[in-house]
Amino acid sequence: MEMGKEKRYKDGRDESLMKSKCLMEVEFPDIKAADAAAKALSHEGKVGARSKSRVTKKKNLLAIEIAAGDVVALRATANSYLRALQVFENIRRGVRK
Questions:
Q1: Phi-psi category of 94—alpha, beta or left, where left has phi over 0 and alpha has psi -120 to 50?
Q2: What SS3 string covers 9-73?
Q3: Please, what sign has the CA dihedral across residues 37, 42, 43, 48?
């Protein structure tokens, strides 16, 4: 989601209408873990209509890009991804609560 480049979402909305943006990059110990996390996160971007997101993977690095119409929606979407990443990390490490 580079600034200045017009992109459209699947529903036809112009990305430039989104006012708040966030990029989170998460490095994993190996490609297998990054693949598993990308698969686990594949549903997270389909939560609400006020934000859009996408997950891309390059080797063992996941990039999570979020664009939202307002900062509240941005924070909610980011929190959703962060919670999912925490669950994934706990499972990977075998942590029990």
A1: left
A2: CCCCCEHHHCCEEEEEEEECCCHHHHHHHHHHHCCHHHCCCCEEEEEEEECCEEEEEEEECCHHH
A3: positive
Q: How far is CA 21 from CA 11, 27, 65, 94, in A?
A: 18, 20, 7, 33
For 14-71, the pLDDT digits (tens) are 555 668 999 999 999 999 999 999 998 887 766 678 899 999 999 999 999 999 999 9
Token pair of 42 as six digits: 């594949």
The answer to whether the beta carbons of residues 6 and 15 sit under 8 Å apart is: yes
What are the residue boundaries of the structural domains of the chain, listed by start? 15-93
The token duo for 71 is 């900062």
Which of 3.40.50.1220, 3.10.180.10, 3.30.310.50, 1.10.10.60 is the CATH number of 15-93? Answer: 3.30.310.50
Q: Distance from CA of residue 95 to its chain's centroid?
A: 23
